[in-house]
Amino acid sequence: MPELDSRTGLQHPFTSSNREDDPEEDGPASEFREGLPKTYRPRHDLHYVEQLTAPTETQPVRLVPVSRIDSADPPADPTVANLAKSILELGIVQPLLVRPHNGRFRLIAGRRRLAAARQAGLTEVPCLVHTVNETRAMQLAVADNLRSPHGASSLSMPASLPDAQAAIDTHSAAMMGELQDAVASLQSCLPLLARGASTREQVALKLLTVESERAAWVIRARRYLAATLPVAHTPVNGATLLEQVKRQAGMAMTLRGGALRVEVVRGAPVLHGDRTLLTTALVGVAQALFALGELVQDPRVVVRLSGPGGGGPTVLAITQPSAVLSEVARSRFLEAGWSERPGGSSAELAMLLARHAASLHGARLEVSSAAGAGTAVTMTFEGVPA
């Protein structure tokens, strides 16, 4: 019986027979890392995620006089009186969203809270002040309503994932859309820096690309878990899906001395769901398994899509071919709160998103781990996709 690592749950000695038995598999990754120091790792720990979602100096919570906030009269709502009683007892828990307008403030979101505050006799209310145009204000209002129990839509988090919803604090959720816009603007400018750049500048550009892609992934993942991004159900070409996964995750793995391979087996199956959500979920799982591979000195990940054969299911499998988990680690791999998880908070966020994506697509999510096969996370779509 191999000895278990008590911290990571990995078995020792680590399984590496796959690399010897299958000559067609990618060989061990080169030590050459394109000019990067050997200790380089893109940031994926808790403090980096929290830096992305923490309040900024340009958008603090401010106490704004009620008399300076302009708002349309709220519709008749018998629950406002109860909310006013709660505010008198506990205060306003969730800040209102406002924007400056002609020396005053125009309400973006929080009409019930404002009406209840006035009924409770408050003279000031906590607000997040956004300097935005009408279009952006409408987007913020929609996001705020999606979070509110009185404005929840069909995109709300399934009841099976309350731990994920609890992890999304209201202040960071309100900022996710703005962060996503900022990162998208950064990413659109990066190709302009590649013209005539030196080798050192090319390496720096790759680092910027990887870090901006990681930031964009964190934002998308948290917005999906907070149900502030819409989820579509349209035909998704399997081969195109895997190519997007490789484009978004491959460069980061290459810079860290590893490799990502994608494969489509039995034709090019078509799934029915949300391509962006599935891509984001698969990228996260691939990164989590890559972190596992780094611990066993085999930084490789394979993403394989198997089409339905004989009326069987379509299967998405993300595999790290060498790492073997203990039974305890395997049973906890998809859970939140595993403090010793390889990959840290990013890997935990990835598992929460994978569970969310599988739930919304009616798929079965499983983890397997065995000597000679490594560790795999599979998403099984029963029946023939539409």
Mean pLDDT: 76
Share in β-strands: 15-25%
Q: What's the tally of helices?
A: 12
User: What would CATH call the class of the largest domain?
Assistant: Alpha Beta
CATH topology of the largest domain: Heat Shock Protein 90
Low-confidence parts: 12-58, 149-171
CATH superfamily of the largest domain: Histidine kinase-like ATPase, C-terminal domain
Shape: elongated
- How many domains is the backbone divided into? 2
> Judging by the overall fold, what is the CATH architecture of the largest domain?
2-Layer Sandwich
Strand runs, count: 14
Question: How would you write the strand order of the largest sheet?
Answer: 3-7-5-6-4
What structural class do you assign from the helix and strand content?
Answer: alpha+beta
Largest sheet features = 5 strands, mixed
User: Helix content range of the residues, please?
Assistant: 40-55%
Radius of gyration: 24 Å
In angstroms, what separates the terminal alpha carbons? 45 Å
Structure description:
The protein is an alpha+beta fold. It has two domains: 3-33 and 231-381, Histidine kinase-like ATPase, C-terminal domain (Heat Shock Protein 90); 61-164, Conserved hypothetical protein from pyrococcus furiosus pfu- 392566-001, ParB domain (Alpha-Beta Complex). Helix content is 42%, strand content 19%. The chain contains twelve helices and 14 strands. It has helices at residues 17-21, 46-53, 79-90, 111-120, 134-147, 162-166, 170-189, 199-225, 238-255, 275-295, 327-332, 344-360; strands spanning 3-4, 11-12, 61-65, 69-70, 96-101, 104-109, 124-129, 234-237, 259-265, 270-273, 300-306, 314-320, 364-370, 374-381. The strands form four sheets. It has a five-stranded mixed β-sheet with strand order 3-7-5-6-4. Strand 5 (96-101) and strand 6 (104-109) form a beta hairpin. The two termini are 45 Å apart.
